[in-house]
Amino acid sequence: MQVVPAVVRGQHARGMRRVADGGVEIDLLGGRGLRTNDDVRRYLLQEAGFAVVPFQAFGLQGENGWFRLSVGAVSLRDIEDALPRLEAALRRALA
User: What is the pTM of this model?
Assistant: First the structure.
């Protein structure tokens, strides 16, 4: 299942673009005072209750702004419930 928040579906908003593998690249650095990967991680956790893992955790060096979004021990309903919160946080960060 591929899930893309409505904030990026069918549009090219400022700071967003689709990438070849069907994913979405969203540039949050600079918005809302977000300067580091940890700033973005904390923002999404606080504003949306949505945890992301920076690629630094997998050995990639530097502040590159890449994160992994993974689901495992949650239900499909939990994922569906989280997406509106994630969308709202992304909209605020890109405003």
Answer: 0.72
